[in-house]
Amino acid sequence: MIAPRTLTPLLAATLITAGCSGSDTTSSASQASPTPSKASATPSASATSSAFCLDLSTFQVGVLAYRAGAGKAINGEPLDFKELRRKATLVLRMAEQMKSSAPPDIAEHFRTVLKAIKASSSNLKDGSTVRDVVDPLYGKKNEPAFEAVTAYECKSAGQ
After folding, report:
1. Which of 8, 25, 65, 86 minimizes the number of CB atoms within 10 Å of its CB?
2. pLDDT tier, 127 (very low <50, low <70, confident <90, very high otherwise)
3. What is each CA distance from 27 to 22, 35, 38, 42, in whole angstroms?
């Protein structure tokens, strides 16, 4: 569950963008973060209070919302470039605040996801192909990083 003190305007905007509005936004955000794989190491207690761990669930929802929006192109649906740029900006802005405190066992995957979103969003312009926008997000090269970040969960030292 997201701690009430982390409900910032950026968090609220991300949740609304992802369609998680309503009276129970905290449970919607926590449901969006699946359980970690067994390969995930348990971070220290101080890591669980880091910017990375405090904002992780919201980041995961934002990434999911951006990928889903851009993924519409796979089915030939038109993309709303302005809206996708806005989602990417929200996700990337949050990620910049999280990056320095990312636990070592997820940091590389986290950076890969950031690069993929930057690459995809930089191609949200007329003249770009569907492949330019979608490949960084769904290509075989980056898929393991997206899976790892989506499944990652910060735990306290006692768990």
Report:
1. 8
2. confident
3. 10, 15, 24, 23
